[in-house]
Amino acid sequence: MDRTRLAEYLRTRREALQPEDVGLPRGRRRRTRGLRREEVAVLSDMSIDYYSRLEQPRGPHPSEQMLAALARGLRLSLEERDHLFQLAGYATPHRSADVDHVNPGMLRIFDGLQDAAAQVVSHLGETMLQTRLSVALLGDESVHAGLARSMHYRWFTDPATRLIHPEEDRAAQSRVIVADLQGSYTRDGKTSRAAAIVDALLAMSPEFASLWREHPVPGPYCGPKRFHHPQVGTLELHCQRLIDPDRSQQLVVYTALPGTESSGKMQLLSVIGGQRIQTDS
Q1: pLDDT tens for each residue of 130-169
Q2: C-alpha–C-alpha distance, residues 251 and 121, integer Å
Q3: Mean of pLDDT over the chain
Q4: How far apart are CA 62 and CA 70, in angstroms?
Q5: In what order do the strands lie in the sheet with 127-130?
Q6: The pLDDT value given to residue 65
Q7: Could you tell me the end-to-end alpha-carbon distance of the chain, in angstroms, rounded to an integer?
Q8: How many CB atoms are located within 10 Å of the residue 80 CB?
Q9: Above 60 in pLDDT, residue 216?
Q10: DSSP state, 150?
């Protein structure tokens, strides 16, 4: 670990970012060039003291998880992230297995959608980022680990995952998920993470196995969806997707038509926040 060069690198990348780049107000009295240390700490989900010590440099040896959080907070490109890991004494992360690094361009758009129900999702249904309203609508999807990080996997292995959609819509949703996995499996190959999910589901879910044999093909867009929320009831929402072809990520935004009952319910959810009540269905 090269502490001095790591500290210099963090400082230069912090100073290169402007508040507008990460969705923060500039304010009238800002004298700092770029972002403040405390702003980077918040964006990276770490304490201000921890980040400050890394820049001084007198901090501890950061873990790979901390470095990944710093790369996200500083909006680093893949090449910049790789250099960060090397300065900290780690090998370059394997990009083929990466599910934590969000493309900086995608992050910039996401930062401007904090009042919307938006999330960044991998091509395997792994939620990488969520806004507050997305958590209120869908629940906190960052709590899962292993294969369960994939909503595609949870859909066929955890019955509670299906409660978000009305029962009459679930068969169509199953088909959409299998089609998405089929596309990822075909593109990534038999030794990929997509293949690991598919193999597990073929062994565990007769429903998945039956649909898999039909070779469903994904549709051209994310169509209207109905969601059943335990506190506000059924919402009819439209889905918009921005796909990053280089990173196999997509920014998904759910919106309601203005003036509709669902629009009013979304406004209520923005007040409720992430306080969800568990119900049975």
Answers
A1: 999 999 999 999 889 899 999 999 999 999 999 999 999 9
A2: 6
A3: 85
A4: 10
A5: 127-130, 117-122, 249-255, 233-244, 225-229
A6: 84
A7: 53
A8: 14
A9: yes
A10: B
pTM for the structure as a whole: 0.68
Q: Which two tokens stand for residue 3?
A: 């502490």
Given a cut of 60, is residue 97 above it in pLDDT? no
pLDDT tens column, 181-199: 988 888 888 888 899 999 9
Q: Buried b vs exposed e over 258-279: b needs ≥16 C-beta within 10 Å?
A: eeeebbebbeebbebeeebeee
Q: Domains in the chain, ordered, with CATH?
A: 3-93 (1.10.260.40), 104-168+217-272 (3.30.450)
For the chain, the C-alpha Rg in angstroms (whole number) is 21
Give the separation between CA 183 and CA 160, rounded to whole angstroms.
25
CA-to-CA separations, 81 to 21, 69, 269, in angstroms, rounded: 18, 10, 36
Beta bridge partners of 250: 121, 243
Omega before residue 218 within 30° of 0, cis: no
Cα distance between residue 117 and residue 256, in whole Å: 10
Residues 6+ apart with CB under 8 A from 93: 64, 68, 81, 82, 85, 101
With bands split at pLDDT 50, 70 and 90, how would you rate the model's confidence at 96?
very low
Q: What is the mean pLDDT of residues 11-28?
A: 81
CA neighbor of 251 nearest in space, from 163, 134, 136, 146 = 134
